[in-house]
Amino acid sequence: xxxxxxxxxxxxxxxxxxxxxxxxxxxxxxxxxxxxxxxxxxxxxxxxxxxxxxxxxxxxxxxxxxxxxxxxxxxxxxxxxxxxxxxxxxxxxxxxxxxxxxxxxxxxxxxxxxxxxxxxxxxxxxxxxxxxxxxxxxxxxxxxxxxxxxxxxxxxxxxxxxxxxxxxxxxxxxxxxxxxxxxxxxxxxxxxxxxxxxxxxxxxxxxxxxxxxxxxxxxxxxxxxxxxxxxxxxxxxxxxxxxxxxxxxxxxxxxxxxxxxxxxxxxxxxxxxx
Length: 274
Known about the structure:
Blueprint: H1 2-9, E1 14-17, H2 34-37, E2 48-54, H3 58-67, E3 74-78, H4 87-93, E4 98-103, H5 110-117, E5 122-127, E6 144-148, H6 150-153, E7 161-164, E8 183-191, E9 194-201, H7 211-225, H8 233-240, H9 251-271
Parallel strand pairs: 1-2, 2-3, 3-4, 4-5, 5-7
Antiparallel strand pairs: 6-9, 8-9
Helix pairs in contact: 3-4, 8-9
């Protein structure tokens, strides 16, 4: 709950998934009731919106929305193909309670896109922009690649917003193992209307030993690459650690830095001067 409190304190607008389906929540025996755990959230309803994942359970989701003690607008997040001719799905999409629809349009036809844009809901495109590799060392094959142009063109395409999975793949993976290579994925603005992602990969990748050395090899590349580019706090964090013998923060923290860098970059592009 700490993250929610921090966002509220800083006046951020955000959505919370009310029917999570990954991790512990993939088990039917694990029940999630955020309002019951944190009832004061309803006092800050102007700052956040309940979001519901929709797959083939549109009737269940509609029931959850109707039975909720909250009566404000909600958001739907749809990552799979939808049939607008299905009366249950159409009833959910056109519900007066639904204000936002987030959809991966790579899964649906142009007809569905056109139909959704005519619903008078706020439609947000969802893109998995990250080209995932099987091994971290494989990112050496193409260290710099186009990530997204959505921040610059989403409005022209008729959308009310855009969304992505940051500089990470959309697949949720539990656990992990010590990698042979360490890779740091950082997005940056390359051209006026393009976001690229650069993969900073270690060089000594034949064994799983010495992760501190691997981190330093990747971090040195970050320092050199950003010498003439704007820095985010995440980039500065990595550069400070280059010459610190205890600078390796662990794989989890590096993932957090990739996310932080992307969010700060998007904030600059949308609300500030880069």
